[in-house]
Amino acid sequence: MQENKIIKLTVRDVRFPTSLEQHGSDAMHTDPDYSVAYVVLETDSDAALKGYGLTFTVGRGTEIVVCAVKALSTLVVGKTLKEIVSDFRGFYRLLSSDGQMRWVGPEKGVIQLATAAILNAVWDLWARVEGKVRNKPLKTNTFECSILLKVVCGKKNRFHTQMLKEGYPAYTTSCAWLGYTDQQLTQLCSEALAQGWTKFKVKVGADLQDDIRRCSLIRKLIGPNNTLMIDANQRWDVNEAITWVTKLAEFHPLWIEEPTCPDDVLGHASISKALAPLGIGVATGEQCHNRVMFKQFLQAAALQFVQIDSCRVGSVNENLAIILMAAKFNVPVCPHAGGVGLCELVQHLILFDYISVSASLNNRMCEYVDHLHEHFESPTIIRNAHYIPPKDPGYSCEMLEESVQKHQYPDGEVWRAIEQQGKQ
Ligand SMILES: C[C@H](O)[C@@H](O)CC(=O)C(=O)O
Ligand SMILES: [Mg+2]
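Structure for Mitochondrial enolase superfamily member 1, as requested:
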């Protein structure tokens, strides 16, 4: 392998004004502007060879993540790709355990989001160098892991016959953001049904009567056999979650997502226990900040669906550990992807889970939201409500330079126009 020394890291604050139309809204994030801290790595070997990575945020605060990426960049610039990937564990620890910077973490919050952005760019760079899509290089080292060994047989078939032809099952959240009107909800849901969607997630948690009305409407539209999930984005305390969800049980949701504080492992365990007789599971993970949290959730039987996130934890490195733990506990992985760039990234992880780890589609699906894909060089491909494996080498999060420039905050033309309108 060529050395590919990283000679430059740039990071930009890119925001999309999604709050104007209430895309992405939920019971806690009522006005999200889908945003990213967007990282580009340049190498000394070839001007065209770059690594692209990002982490997702919802608007204000992206500038803090950008600062954290800048602070970590000194640990990356000057390293060769070969040095990094020949001891990737060491490099991960270098970023997450820096003797001075770990005080502002460790492995949580802004610094962890920044770590994810950088590591996502490194994985992208590595995949481009190898000329492969991410799920292929990940096939190595099966020899020492019994979980991986168990499913070696059938890998080719799962990839070539199933994934390339049919794709990985997806569900949609795009029909029922909390700020959408009933009319919008009805229209989007009917369109989604016509496009072949069978699994739908509805935002809940702000007002019980609204939730009853919206869930009833969606259940009527999708019929009894399609799947419904509900997501409260941490709005309730533990007892409130149990009471509230019990009142929504008649709509037969498969899961309640983020019912309470994302750090309350035992609270989630109580909710899981109380809702099990109603056939409702607990899903969480989009704000679960590291593998140790997932370990606690799994050990305490506090979740029934593991929602990995490509930007919340330390990139592929940490998500591999979480995917393996989920397999050990026999809990399905159903990734979170509500945000800009998350579908593009997480599709690689869920394909790896299916091909190399779980070998099962039972109770498994990957979230899809139909926003902002047009800003990516290799946008996700959805066919008949399934993710079709990406073909271009890399981790799929390179953005169109024109989009980045237009949406850069605060000086891009989109934001200048919004500021102007505000002044009028
Ligand atoms: C603020 C985001 O849109 C959030 O609501 C996404 C989410 O919870 C999900 O997709 O799940
Ligand atoms: Mg959610």
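Residues 109-130 form the longest helix (22 residues).
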